[in-house]
Design goal:
With 244 residues, this protein is of the alpha/beta class. The protein has a single domain (3-239), classed as NAD(P)-binding Rossmann-like Domain (Rossmann fold, 3-Layer(aba) Sandwich), CATH 3.40.50. The protein is built from nine helices and nine strands. The chain has helices at residues 13-19, 40-49, 64-71, 91-96, 98-126, 147-168, 200-212, 223-232, 236-239; strands at residues 3-8, 26-33, 53-58, 80-83, 130-134, 173-178, 181-183, 197-199, 217-219. Helix 3 runs parallel beside helix 5. The longest helix has 29 residues, at 98-126. The radius of gyration is 18 Å and the shape is globular.
């Protein structure tokens, strides 16, 4: 069946890898980013190789009211929306600078929620649609190394959980993705362990297949489900004395 798909945060490495997996059952693809000029080559490639029409939309996740106005007329047309936008930020900087704190929270939680609210209402009215939100294993338990980012993602995961329960009753599916370590531009300054770090291509493939199967919560690399299970169950008295 023909469908329209939207990717928000389309300049991210995983989103761009996802585009290459989209098949010709998609009649129209919407790519949303702060800098749409970077998406022009991808737009041309998709239109030529896949015969799928592509629209580029410029949007900053943190421009709350502007985004509501932008997406409200478009949302009823969309069948699947993937929310890839995110900002890892700088933990130490956020501890002393409120602007950095707000940027982390507004990008990963407030802005994401306000945009997805628009699609949730549109999908509920037509009683169909799929919403995929990219959260993080960092939200499974707050840790000293990234608790601003982790708390925003924890909130986002809880939001997706609740929305999934609500919208399931009207035929709309919501999927939460928890990638774990990924080798992307956002993490290029980090020294990530290769054995538990997924490539953008692997992450896109896992997300794409899971969306088709309408999974609920997906860990891109399965081992992260068990890693976070252990971390969540470390007694607080011990947890306070370690650094992770």
């Amino acid at each position: 069946m023909a469908k329209e798909i939207m990717l928000i945060g389309a300049t991210s490495d995983v989103a761009q890898a996802m585009v290459h997996l989209i098949d010709r059952k998609t009649t129209h693809l919407w790519l949303v980013a702060r800098n749409v000029e970077r998406l022009e080559p991808l737009k041309t490639h998709v239109e030529i190789t896949k015969a799928i029409s592509v629209s580029l939309l410029e949007s900053d996740v943190c421009e709350f009211e502007k985004n509501i106005t932008l997406f409200e007329p478009i949302a009823p047309k969309i069948d699947e929306i993937y929310f890839f936008a995110g900002y890892l930020g700088h933990q130490e900087k956020a501890q002393t600078e409120s602007a950095e704190t707000l940027k982390i929270i507004n990008t990963n939680f407030t802005g994401a929620v306000l945009i997805l609210n628009v699609f949730a209402e549109a999908f509920a009215k037509k009683k169909s649609g799929i919403i995929i939100g990219i959260s993080s294993v960092a939200g499974d338990r707050g840790r000293s190394s990234n608790y601003f980012y982790g708390s925003a993602k924890a909130g986002f995961s809880a939001y997706l959980d609740g929305m999934r329960q609500r919208l399931a009753k009207v035929g709309v599916h919501v999927m939460t993705v928890k990638p774990g370590f990924m080798a992307t531009r956002m993490t290029r300054e980090l020294d990530l362990p290769k054995l538990i770090t997924a490539s953008s291509e692997k992450a896109a493939s896992v997300i794409f297949k899971a969306a088709k199967k309408k999974k609920n919560t997906v860990y891109v690399t399965t081992i992260w489900r068990f890693i976070m299970l252990v971390i969540r169950n470390i007694p607080e008295a011990i947890f306070k004395r370690i650094s992770i």
